[in-house]
Write a structure and sequence with these properties.
By secondary structure, the chain is mainly α. It folds into 2 domains: 1-81, Four Helix Bundle (Hemerythrin (Met), subunit A), CATH 1.20.120.1200; 126-163. Helices cover 76% and strands 0% of the residues. The chain contains 6 helices and no strands. Helix 1 packs antiparallel against helix 2 and helix 2 (26-46) runs antiparallel to helix 3 (50-75). The protein is globular and about 55 Å long. The N and C termini lie far apart (57 Å). GO terms for molecular function: NADH dehydrogenase (ubiquinone) activity; quinone binding. It is found in: Cell membrane.
Length: 164
């Protein structure tokens, strides 16, 4: 049963993420991103990480998406602005995707093949354990992720900004 739920969530996640990338209408793209965030929260629930499940829904599917919708409505993109866009942005996107793919491939090759399946740990999803790990061991990646999200929002505003 868990495998069926996993594959259904994976199909929904992949389909909505691909639609987010290829959608012509920015509003539909943002709505597909909401579907992606909800399906990712389903993965957290399957992993017994109830805290991350709720945070994913409240923070990402709620607050971040409201912020993106506000930015989209503030920019008021028109069809006339589409003519001004250059192919350089597409090239940069393809180049960044290739670099990401090479990094993932390198990480995959670095994995050891002798992993042993263990029984599920029931203390994994507890908030106390998550807080200890997040603010002791993983404080630098946590702060780096927040800076990366801020840079993405600033970049989205700068790319969509009209020359006055």
């Amino acid at each position: 049963m868990d495998q069926i739920v996993f594959f259904v969530l994976a199909a929904i996640t992949l389909a909505s993420a691909v639609y987010f990338v290829v959608a012509k209408n920015p509003l539909y793209a943002i709505l597909s991103l909401v579907v992606t965030f909800f399906s990712i929260s389903g993965f957290y629930l399957m992993l017994n990480a109830q805290f991350l499940f709720i945070i994913q829904i409240i923070v990402y599917a709620g607050a971040i998406m409201v912020l993106f919708l506000y930015i989209l409505m503030m920019l008021n993109l028109n069809k006339i602005d589409d003519v001004k866009k250059h192919n350089a942005n597409k090239f940069i996107g393809v180049f960044a995707t290739c670099i990401l793919f090479l990094g993932l491939l390198g990480a995959y090759k670095g994995l050891s093949g002798n992993t042993v399946a263990t029984s599920a740990d029931t203390t994994v999803g507890l908030t106390k354990n998550l807080g200890k790990l997040l603010f002791n061991e993983y404080v630098l990646p946590f702060e780096f992720a927040s800076i990366l999200i801020l840079a993405g929002i600033v970049g989205a505003v700068l790319v969509g900004k009209r020359d006055l």
